[in-house]
Hints:
Distance between the termini: 16 Å
Strand content: 15-25%
CATH topology of the largest domain: Peroxisomal Thiolase, Chain A, domain 1
Bound molecules: oxa(dethia)-CoA
Number of helices: 10
Amino acid sequence: xxxxxxxxxxxxxxxxxxxxxxxxxxxxxxxxxxxxxxxxxxxxxxxxxxxxxxxxxxxxxxxxxxxxxxxxxxxxxxxxxxxxxxxxxxxxxxxxxxxxxxxxxxxxxxxxxxxxxxxxxxxxxxxxxxxxxxxxxxxxxxxxxxxxxxxxxxxxxxxxxxxxxxxxxxxxxxxxxxxxxxxxxxxxxxxxxxxxxxxxxxxxxxxxxxxxxxxxxxxxxxxxxxxxxxxxxxxxxxxxxxxxxxxxxxxxxxxxxxxxxxxxxxxxxxxxxxxxxxxxxxxxxxxxxxxxxxxxxxxxxxxxxxxxxxxxxxxxxxxxxxxxxxxxxxxx
Length: 332
Ligand code: UT7
């Protein structure tokens, strides 16, 4: 029997503030019609000030309660976050402190919107070797703080939220397929610390150090069409690759839970894979793109609604900045 991951508990946190497309149209030149037609998004949640660690803690508390584990039982906390409050301590360490997960070691994984899926694959490795028994994965994103509200091509697409899962070693199916394409990295860009700026950095303007074209402050920029082209293959390739490694056909899946970036991308994947939309979970209409939090938020909603039954075969798929993509197939 293959060594897999068992999702023992899920949780989520979404800020209470609902921002509709019409609300955004008061600030940028856009319309409800354009956003709904091009993306399937009707509204999103924006933080009213809740930082990442706070959102992550709320989702994590729900997940550990749902899993029935004590904070002290957690061996590792992996956070995934591209909009952190601090570079260090990482969100994972702040969450450890708030939970009292005193026996965990904690770190942050950087794979942008693919973060949850990558974290699950890493967790599986620790669980398979026996070096950890209980792992908490927390994805928390304040996308709103990295949005330029003068850029209508990005600011309408994202939302804030957190999702979490407690994972243990499972004995069912497992297959994963990850892929990265650094050559297209500039298509989704957010600068970190703004350059070396000491009296000793006399060569800082040397053009050879410009990996990417300068952007406006710390805001994210996106070449939407380039990312869209990438995603056309990303979901089908990684999901079929993960299914192949798990030893099942794609049509044996009970559910596909994709990253929620654009309803059109999800529909295209459904068409390409001949996989029915009824078996694909979608909540982008309510929450927009919450980066790596989107997949665990979906899982948590589905779990609460009783949509997931033990033994069901599910695929989780992520794609985004890097560019990165990945899918994991497990049994619920
Ligand atoms: O998790 C990260 C992964 N990110 C993604 O997966 C995003 C992938 N990309 C996409 O989802 C789509 O490319 C977008 C939704 C971002 C854009 O949709 P599109 O159909 O590719 O639109 P476009 O960029 O080709 O723009 C079409 C038109 C342009 O006007 P012109 O040049 O045709 O006059 C844009 O200026 O739509 C205009 N436009 C808007 N109009 C109203 C762009 N944004 C907006 C807006 N409201 N918010």
